[in-house]
Amino acid sequence: MSLKTELQLMLDTYSEDFRARDVDACLAFFDEDCKFITPRGVFRGRSQVEQLHQSWIQENHAEREMQVQQIESIGNHVYAIWRFRDLVPDADTGKNAFCEGTALGVIRLDPDDGWLIVACSSNFDADQVVAPVAMTPAKAVA
């Protein structure tokens, strides 16, 4: 199986877990010290990523699809770019609408836990507006 196919299967499983609203299963794909950068802020560590996932579920993010576009492997790390499609609350209407965007992930192969997301930067396409989440991300480190 190619590395790209392996990562796609990982993202497909994560998406299935997300649609099932299984936050613990989603978190299993993240390194303990991960960083998740979103338009809402920077979330550091699994506990903050858990809060982010809980907020998405509370906001009724019902769908999530991801498609690997490009990968680069260096040692036991992979740098991957993927497109995503998510059903999210529209900031103007409050109704759910599909938004699309791009993510850049740094993924590490752990001998015990398999592929773990070390860092991810996720941004919606420029014309997409997302309602703010009621939570505080990690403070920026200078």
From TrEMBL:
Gene3D superfamilies: 3.10.450.50. Residues 14-95 form the SnoaL-like domain. InterPro entries: NTF2-like_dom_sf (IPR032710), SnoaL-like (IPR037401). It holds the Pfam family SnoaL_2. It comes from the Bacteria. This is SnoaL-like domain-containing protein. It comes from Aliiruegeria lutimaris. The lineage of its organism: Bacteria, Pseudomonadati, Pseudomonadota, Alphaproteobacteria, Rhodobacterales.
